[in-house]
Automatic annotation (TrEMBL):
Keywords: Oxidoreductase. This is FMN-binding glutamate synthase family protein. Belongs to the glutamate synthase family. The keyword Electron transport does not apply. One of its GO terms (biological process) is glutamate biosynthetic process. Pfam families: Glu_synthase. It is an enzyme of class 1 (oxidoreductase). PANTHER family: ARCHAEAL-TYPE GLUTAMATE SYNTHASE [NADPH] (PTHR43819). Residues 139-454 form the Glutamate synthase domain. Gene3D superfamilies: Aldolase class I. GO terms for molecular function: glutamate synthase activity.
Length: 514
């Protein structure tokens, strides 16, 4: 009897659904194929998951392949992150693959197997310009800009605690410095075009509010965001469903409405006024000040380098974001087709400063899928001094690449403000995973630099990596990107200094925190 009742109820439900499908006019598929047509929409909904786990090969999916995700997950969980039986990449015929050229003999090297091995920057951030609070960053790997709002409070908490455990810095993102950023990790405060956290009632930049924010948190540097790789020239976008009352209060905006930042700054209008703004912030706070930008037309960079060559004004660091970088929400054309990929964009920016002999005068930071050892090694060979990781850090705390960041329906609770979904993020345990991933990436980079025969990734040169063109040609990075002799390399003084720092006895190591 019970089974008969259940069957009758199910039949009634199916009949109601079929009747609704037949009379509705929105979906032709359902009108022609009632009930069964819903299977198509179900498969479309779980398409990313099907491709991840069933359809694609280990090295096929984008943005991150199964192999890449597996390496990050295993590293974060302190599991075996080795791969057996050999590569499944088509190394014989593939075009564009990077190969590191190992050396038979090496100079002094640090302990390549110590999970706690220090790996500080080869440059002092803010040192060349004499900033009052200049310091040597303790880690060449740091957490990139991801705002509270784009990420949940639990995710930001986990990342900040992970940064503290790993001794890295954590960029706040343009959404302002939230309570979730105050869990022990050192911060880089990002200032975007909306000046969240340091704006007046009319939305204009407020120096007094900026100084108050800096005074009340462990802010180590300030980054002025000009653009980002996934949506350059567009400004940030936080969809309305993610703008909770809490986020609205932190940012000073209406709750529940789309938050679209302007595409450009109002506190300055050209390179000359931007440098005045940089010097003002540095003088008032004592902190190193830099810029973050994607790379498009080059006249901006050429003018910046030309003005910096005078020596009276300048940025302390430049963060170059590749067009393959991530975002919580962006139009498809911006994600796919606006701004240069990292390697091409960075090499053009670096060359602009190298032509004027300025590469030792500022720190170069790279971002855009650089949280993988191979990509990071290439970046350091091109002249990067530090890298920022974003989506890789998200993966380390549980992201499954569901690609639902823009819908507020992230199934793992990382890129959503839904309380029900956010409860899945256990911040303390996820913090440990983030820290372990960051440490593992540093250790892998030490191993790669050791294979090349140098003590630090910044000592890998463009001549140490070849780019393959099928099975018939290989060219060095220097040749591919038009680098001249000495470009991409540290000056002898900086090279000797960082080598001595890493190969000294542990008791002799200085405090790198500033």
């Amino acid at each position: 009897m019970r089974a008969r009742n259940i069957g009758a109820a199910a039949a009634t439900v199916l009949a109601v659904v079929a009747a609704r499908d037949l009379v509705q006019k929105k979906h032709a598929l359902l009108r022609n194929f009632p009930v069964v047509g819903h299977a198509r929409y179900l498969l479309e909904t779980i398409g990313p998951e099907l491709r991840q786990y069933v359809v694609t090969s280990n090295d096929e999916e984008r943005p991150f392949s199964r192999d890449q995700r597996s390496w990050i997950y295993a590293s974060a969980k302190e599991e075996n992150n080795y791969f057996g039986f050999g590569t499944d990449n088509d190394v014989e015929h593939v075009q564009g693959h990077a190969y590191v050229k190992q050396r038979t003999f090496a100079g002094p090297l640090p302990d390549l197997h110590d999970p706690q091995a220090p790996l500080p920057s080869a440059k002092v951030l803010g040192g060349p310009r004499g900033r009052a609070k200049a310091f040597r960053p303790a880690s060449i790997v740091n957490i990139s800009a991801m705002s509270f709002g784009s990420l949940s409070g639990a995710a930001v908490t986990a990342l900040n605690k992970g940064a503290a455990l790993a001794g890295t810095m954590h960029n706040t993102g343009e959404g302002g410095l939230s309570p979730y950023h105050r869990n022990g990790g050192d911060l880089i405060l990002q200032i975007g075009t909306s000046y969240f956290g340091c704006r007046d009632e009319d939305g204009n930049f407020s120096l007094d509010k900026l100084k108050a924010v800096v005074a009340g948190a462990p802010v180590k540097a300030i980054e002025i965001k000009l653009s980002q790789g996934a949506k350059p020239g567009l400004g940030g976008m936080l969809p309305g469903p993610k703008v909770t009352d809490e986020i609205a209060e932190i940012r000073g905006i209406p709750a529940g409405k789309d938050c679209a930042s302007p595409s450009r700054h109002t506190a300055f209008h050209d390179v000359d006024s931007m440098l005045d703004f940089v010097e003002l912030l540095a003088a008032e706070t004592g902190l190193p000040v830099g810029i973050k930008s994607a790379v498009g037309e080059m006249s901006f960079w050429e003018e910046l380098a030309t003005l910096m060559a005078r020596g009276d004004r300048g940025v302390d660091f430049v963060t170059v974001d590749g067009g393959e970088g991530g975002t919580g929400a962006a139009p498809l054309i911006f994600s796919d087709s606006v701004s240069l990929p990292f390697r091409m964009g960075f090499s053009r920016v670096y060359s602009t400063f190298a032509e004027r002999g300025l590469t030792d005068e500022l720190t170069f930071i790279g971002s855009g899928k650089l949280g993988l050892p191979e990509n990071a090694a290439v970046a350091f060979a091109l002249g990067v001094d530090m890298i920022n990781v974003a989506r890789e850090a998200m993966l380390s705390i549980g992201c499954i690449q569901a690609q639902k960041c823009h819908t507020d329906k992230c199934p793992t609770g990382i890129a959503t403000q839904s309380p029900w979904l956010v409860r899945g993020v256990d911040a303390p345990s996820k913090a440990n995973r983030a820290a372990m991933y960051l440490r593992t990436l540093r250790r892998e980079l030490l191993k790669v630099s050791g294979a090349v025969g140098v003590a630090h990734p910044s000592l890998i040169t463009p001549a140490d990596i070849d780019i393959m063109n099928g099975d018939y040609e290989a060219r060095t990075l220097a040749s591919v990107y038009g680098y001249k002799d000495g470009w991409g390399e540290l000056s002898p003084h900086l090279a000797q200094e960082i080598t001595a720092l890493l190969t000294a006895e542990p008791a002799a190591l200085p405090d790198t925190a500033g």
